[in-house]
Specification:
Helices cover about 45% and strands about 15% of the residues. By secondary structure, the protein is an alpha/beta fold. The chain has a six-stranded mixed β-sheet with strand order 1-2-3-4-6-9, sandwiched between helices. A three-stranded mixed β-sheet has the order 5-7-8. The chain starts with 7 loop residues before the first strand and ends in a 7-residue tail after the last helix.
């Protein structure tokens, strides 16, 4: 697949930062097979491009200007698509897992509606920034009669917000706004809609300025240690830098750089 896409936009809003925009505004950015295939291609591009250090995932506004992330799987297409090998040429679960496993940090930028299949993709991202008025939900129970989800929603959701809150969201098909999503730990930040993208982009630029290998190693370690006991995780943390060929800076060097940076920011700030 080439550089041009029909159902997503691939942009570079800042140095070392990519932005992928779900771009089917007439269809509420519904996740069609073609859109998912293009998203898969974009994720591969990001994974294979050493110049990309962070990427943002968001949705295009509706034609009337309303902010919107995605209404989830394209149900019209699902009804018309015949079952068979061709309809399963791309595994959405494999795509979501690929996003989850990617060592290039991802930030989901959520405004407007983000439901069901779209929420599953958002949960696979490393960070989630939402507008305070965003509407996040999972409607698997309401639409299919089973609240587990096919792309990992129940497993990822329960790990983020706890099993009891996940039960409430899944069994009742509850809709939460950005502020409530922040309160329960579903998103990292909730900000006014008008400042959402600027906030997310500033965070992306900050992460992009960190040591690339250190960021990737940290992401990999955090994923692995989640399934370990605390003792094993701490031991793995000691071993990881050596395994990855990373030499940590001496503490004295870190302290020197800390005070040098403080003096650069505030020359009148004395050391204590």
């Amino acid at each position: 697949m080439g550089n041009e896409y029909e159902h997503i936009r691939y942009e570079m809003p800042a140095e070392h930062v990519a932005r992928v925009v779900l771009n089917r505004p007439q269809a509420a950015n519904a996740l069609s097979a073609d859109l998912l295939a293009e998203l898969d291609d974009a994720v591969e591009r990001i994974n294979n491009d050493d110049e990309i250090r962070v990427w943002l995932l968001t949705g295009a506004p509706r034609p009337d200007g309303r902010p919107w992330f995605s209404a989830g799987v394209d149900m019209k297409e699902a009804l018309s698509r015949p079952e068979g090998p061709q309809s399963r040429r791309l595994s959405p679960l494999a795509l979501v897992d690929k996003i989850d496993d990617l060592l290039t940090p991802s930030i989901a930028v959520i405004d407007g509606v983000c439901t069901t299949g779209a929420l599953e993709i958002v949960l696979a991202c490393d960070l989630r920034f939402a507008a305070s008025t965003a509407q996040l939900s999972d409607w698997h129970m309401k639409t299919s009669g089973l609240g587990i989800g096919a792309w990992g929603v129940s497993a990822r959701l329960s790990r983020l917000v706890g099993v009891d809150k996940a039960k409430e969201l899944l069994l009742m098909s509850e809709v939460v706004d950005g502020d409530e999503a922040k309160r329960i730990g579903l998103v990292n930040r909730s900000v006014p809609s008008e400042s959402l993208m600027d906030t997310a982009l500033a965070a992306a630029v900050k992460i992009a300025g960190m040591p690339r290998r250190g960021v990737r190693t940290t992401l990999g370690y955090l994923s692995l240690q989640a399934e370990m006991s605390k003792r094993d995780a701490m031991r793995w943390g000691e071993l990881t830098p050596e395994f990855m060929g990373i030499t940590l800076r001496p503490f004295s060097d870190a302290a020197s750089r800390f005070y040098r940076d403080r003096r650069a920011e505030d020359p009148d700030d004395g050391e204590s």
